[in-house]
Amino acid sequence: MKSAGLWKQCMRLKRVCAMKIEIEMPDELPHGHGASFKKGIADAILESAKTELAHTPEGHEDSRKKGLTVGEEIVKIVSGIVKP
Predict the structure, then answer these.
(1) Residue 2 clears pLDDT 80, i.e. is over it
(2) What is the spatial distance between Cα 40 and Cα 46, in angstroms, rounded to a whole number?
């Protein structure tokens, strides 16, 4: 995967990088299903964690904040596809 290789190179060089990821999402979700959909996304991401979830290693706070920002964007997208 070319973009993954570029990301690794960027990390090695300690540069600030941004990557756009295209994810196929449903066009709509039934009314009231937004939270379940978001929980499914969170479950999949959190299951991949290699460290205890409650613990943020020293020096990683900025990365956690960046992840929170990305998560907030996902919430906005999911909220937009739930039927009123």
Answers:
(1) no
(2) 10
